[in-house]
């Protein structure tokens, strides 16, 4: 998720769940080919398993970028066919690719030829008036024939004109039944459901009918929902411990980043939701929000915020 799932958030999320698959922000082929490639590909080994998401439509460029992903050690490379922003449409990629399944098929085939890591696709259930189940089925059929075995499907269509990207994540109704039907029609493919999932209970319910669940906003804003994922869904014996333990484990990483010149707020903005629903959560958030930018290299801000967790002390008489 752009601006959200950067390496700082991913490092933090990994301390909460070791087994969930994490995704990078979308990185465009132009950024990788012409930009600061090392920066866009950088991650910490602990973030594995980690998928690099690419934005682009030129098969040759996508193949070259898939190779970069493989060389950098990513577990998977994912092609974005779901983002509806204008900027992405001007580059003719993202959700508008759902209108050109042959081109997506060519891109996937070129990527699959270039690498041995899985090449996967993230798509919507439809775009504009191309929103019938038949169109979705043909898109997945065409693209899977060219070598993609796994589709993460945001169970909403996107309106490319008239709705903002944010509105396109909320206004078109969720149609889980179309994603479930895809799984029935393509039992050999991995079908991952995305959109509106806010708890592991819901995820488990979906898992009766699909192979995986992708959680976006809730995992970011309320990351502790991932805390039971390893034990409930991946058969692990141990979860992450407490929120305090996660924060303690995060601090050496933050210190290392501060020494490298990263500003505290760039990192702590991703952990504001850690204590959601707990006593003191608001104080924790406020302390970080108010102080990290004033004291951008002072790790004490984080310790102070943590000390604010818990019920307020009883007033003295
Ligand atoms: C701020 C933001 C940035 C996003 N960036 C991406 C992105 O880079 N690539 C992508 O495939 N989806 C992106 N999405 C969409 C999410 O991956 C997801 O499909 C959508 O939010 C619905 O799932 P959710 O209800 O679990 O959040 C983004 C969503 C948000 C809120």
Overall description:
The chain is α/β, with parallel strands linked by helices and 317 residues long. It has 2 domains: 7-232, Aldolase class I (TIM Barrel, Alpha-Beta Barrel); 243-307, Four Helix Bundle (Hemerythrin (Met), subunit A) (Up-down Bundle). It is 43% helix and 14% strand. The protein has 15 helices and 7 strands. Strands 1-2-3-4-5-6-7 form a 7-stranded parallel sheet. Helix 7 links the parallel strand 4 and strand 5. It is globular, with a radius of gyration of 20 Å. The model has no long low-confidence stretch (mean pLDDT 96). Bound molecules: flavin mononucleotide. Residues 1-4, 25-26, 53, 80, 82-83, 122, 154, 169, 194-197, 215-218 line the site of flavin mononucleotide.
Keywords:
15 helices, TIM Barrel, 317 residues, 2 domains, alpha/beta, binds flavin mononucleotide, Four Helix Bundle (Hemerythrin (Met), subunit A), single chain, 14% strand, 43% helix, 7-stranded parallel β-sheet
Fold blueprint:
Blueprint: H1 7-16, E1 22-28, H2 29-34, H3 37-41, E2 50-55, H4 59-72, E3 76-81, H5 86-90, H6 101-114, E4 119-127, H7 133-145, E5 150-158, H8 176-185, E6 190-194, H9 200-206, E7 212-214, H10 217-221, H11 229-233, H12 243-259, H13 264-268, H14 281-291, H15 300-307
Parallel strand pairs: 1-2, 2-3, 3-4, 4-5, 5-6, 6-7
Helix pairs in contact: 1-12, 4-6, 6-7, 14-15
The structure holds flavin mononucleotide.
Flavin mononucleotide binds at residues 1-4, 25-26, 53, 80, 82-83, 122, 154, 169, 194-197, 215-218.
What gyration radius follows from the Cα positions, in whole Å? 20 Å
What percent of residues adopt helix (DSSP H or I)?
40-55%
CATH class of the largest domain: Alpha Beta
- Mean pLDDT, as a whole number? 96
Low-confidence stretches: none
| Major beta sheet summary | 7 strands, parallel
Shape: globular
Task: Count every beta strand, where a strand is a DSSP E run of 2 or more residues.
Answer: 7
Along the chain, the helix and strand elements come as HEHHEHEHHEHEHEHEHHHHHH
* CATH superfamily placement of the largest domain: Aldolase class I
Neighbour order of strands in the largest sheet: 1-2-3-4-5-6-7
CATH topology of the largest domain: TIM Barrel
Give the CA-CA distance, first to last residue. Answer: 50 Å
